[in-house]
User: Which sequence fits this backbone?
């Protein structure tokens, strides 16, 4: 796969002596949506800030489209748009003024038609002459997105784009993200919310304590670490699990009306058909059955627990 | 060179100035007028001419310098401190903009503001006294160089300061005393011998003296030395900034 950002041995120790990133290696594919998942203080913002030039890495190297972020900073930075985690905007600037400022700062030629369309896409156009301080938090978030996209970047970083955002804006945001993706923009977003990563990303990287624990395709991650649960409703309740089923990882609920069989999808020793067969043989009368898949959240909790 | 970036930084800063034009201009104009009423008319009428120049006229260059120095420093320091304070500096740091381009944008705007202000102050002064400038080009030269040098100095303070106290302490504790003791309101020949020698260590003396010479051809030290000192100060500021840049001092971790 063609990679657009290549991170090699990146580490960051802050002046305070705190090691926020410990040798991170990561290849980000051109045109993908990558979610970086991790708890507070994991190092997500530190990683993004290093790539964007907001902080200097302590060691390691990063290239964007083949250019080094330090020796070729002009080329790499003009390819990147960043939506920061905090709502940092000049209170007295107007929406239009600040977006035009951003475009100019990134060295792009003036293009009012493009900016106009951008503001329309973000439902900001009717606010274009408002001062930032008169906007709601959600609208400020939109302004930050508009600023990040003002110079038509190839790579977009969204640092916790949905913090403090309502359902409506979240939907809008995913629409925009999908549109950008279709245009070939590579998108990296950080989040605490597993559903979010599950919903939008193609690959998920899990960060904890400054280490990248894993990066995998979302589906593969679900498959390799995902557990499935086979839930069977019984026609007649029973007091205990029949003895021939005891060797399997089968549990009975309190009312005795449902049994559940939990198995790891990738585990070779798990044989669902054998279990089903045995269940039928045991004389239990089945009413209904369904399979549930564990969410990324469960996977993540397991991963971080292992780490600790 | 990212010229577009320099341009937008410059105009963005100037926009801030226009938006607060009244405050930006009112306070220096009012204080200049007050100085004229107090020193020029009230006290000045009892003071004899200094080297053939009436006292009201004599203080004009010093007054202008007082405003130019303090305003250059406060404009430039505030200009770069504020984004650090609010966090909007992230954009500057993540943009394809070099440190020097940032510097040119901010310092250029601060110096322009000071220049506009100096013009307004001189115009105000002209209402009180009859101002004749002997060497307009020298006057402009001294003015421009001083605006740039002290805007650079302000930029350094803005980078260095990480809170509002630090931002204000140098102008308050160092610059204002130096300006008052640097012969803005008197000729150092009026001082006792020892103090004349001490005053020679005050860099502001050279600025004021050279600037005053361009108006009245009257000076405490020779123009050549004044000019040299302005350039020296400029060079020192640039050297400090170059060092800050090389070490990434205080701009980013
Ligand atoms: N300027 C700094 N100086 C010292 N330590 C810092 C600095 N910035 C961040 N840290 C520390 O580095 C660690 C990683 O911070 P970072 O902001 O990258 O985490 P994060 O994954 O983005 O967290 P969150 O989800 O809360 O945004 C934290 O422990 C934080 O306290
Ligand atoms: Mg963060």
Assistant:
């Amino acid at each position: 796969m063609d990679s657009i950002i290549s991170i090699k041995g990146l580490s960051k120790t802050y002046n305070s002596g705190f090691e926020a990133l410990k040798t991170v290696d990561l290849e980000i594919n051109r045109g993908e949506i990558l979610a970086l998942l991790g708890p507070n203080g994991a190092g997500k913002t530190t990683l993004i800030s290093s790539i964007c030039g907001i902080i200097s890495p302590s060691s390691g190297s990063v290239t964007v489209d083949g250019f080094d972020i330090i020796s070729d900073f002009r080329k790499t930075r003009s390819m990147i748009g960043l939506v920061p985690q905090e709502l940092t905007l000049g209170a007295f600037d107007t929406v239009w003024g600040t977006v035009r400022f951003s475009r100019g700062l990134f060295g792009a030629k003036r293009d009012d038609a493009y900016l106009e369309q951008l503001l329309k896409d973000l439902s900001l156009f009717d606010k274009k002459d408002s001062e930032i301080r008169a906007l709601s938090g959600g609208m400020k978030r939109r302004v930050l997105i508009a600023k990040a996209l003002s110079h038509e970047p190839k790579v977009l970083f969204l640092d916790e784009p949905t913090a403090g955002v309502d359902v409506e804006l979240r939907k809008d945001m995913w629409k925009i993200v999908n549109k950008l993706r279709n245009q070939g923009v590579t998108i990296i977003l950080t989040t605490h919310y597993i559903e979010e990563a599950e919903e939008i990303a193609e690959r998920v990287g899990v960060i904890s304590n400054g280490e990248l624990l894993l990066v995998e395709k979302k589906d593969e991650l679900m498959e390799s670490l995902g557990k499935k649960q086979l839930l069977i409703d019984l026609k007649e309740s029973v007091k205990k699990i029949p003895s021939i089923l005891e060797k399997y990882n089968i549990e009975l609920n309190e009312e005795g009306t449902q049994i559940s069989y939990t198995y790891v999808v990738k585990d070779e020793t798990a044989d669902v058909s054998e279990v089903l067969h045995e269940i039928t043989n045991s004389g239990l009368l089945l009413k209904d059955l369904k399979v549930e898949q564990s969410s990324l959240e469960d996977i993540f909790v397991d991963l971080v627990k292992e780490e600790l | 060179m990212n010229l577009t970036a320099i341009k937008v930084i410059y105009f963005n800063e100037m926009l801030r100035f226009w938006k607060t034009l009244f405050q930006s201009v009112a306070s220096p104009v009012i204080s200049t007028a007050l100085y004229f009423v107090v020193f020029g008319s009230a006290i000045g009428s009892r003071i004899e001419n200094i080297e053939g120049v009436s006292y009201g006229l004599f203080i004009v260059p010093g007054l202008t310098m007082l405003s130019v120095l303090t305003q250059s420093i406060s404009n430039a320091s505030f200009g770069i401190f504020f984004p650090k304070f609010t966090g909007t500096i992230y954009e500057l740091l993540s943009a394809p903009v070099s440190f020097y381009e940032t510097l040119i944008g901010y310092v250029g705007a601060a110096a322009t503001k000071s220049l506009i202000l100096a013009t307004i102050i001189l115009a105000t002064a002209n209402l009180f006294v009859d101002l004749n400038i002997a060497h307009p080009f020298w006057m402009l030269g001294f003015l421009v160089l001083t605006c740039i040098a002290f805007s650079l100095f302000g930029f350094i303070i803005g980078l260095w300061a990480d809170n509002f106290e630090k931002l204000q302490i140098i102008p308050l504790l160092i610059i204002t005393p130096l300006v008052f003791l640097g012969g803005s309101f008197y000729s150092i020949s009026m001082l006792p011998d020892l103090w004349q020698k001490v005053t020679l260590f005050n860099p502001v003396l050279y600025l004021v003296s050279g600037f005053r010479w361009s108006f009245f051809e009257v000076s405490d030290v020779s123009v050549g030395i004044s000019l040299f000192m302005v350039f020296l100060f400029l060079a020192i500021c640039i050297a400090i900034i170059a060092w800050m840049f090389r070490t990434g001092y205080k701009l980013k971790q």
The domain at 3-222 of chain A is CATH 3.40.50.300 (Rossmann fold). The radius of gyration of chain A is 24 Å. The longest strand of chain A covers residues 3-13. Chain A touches chain B through 34 residues (CB under 8 Å).
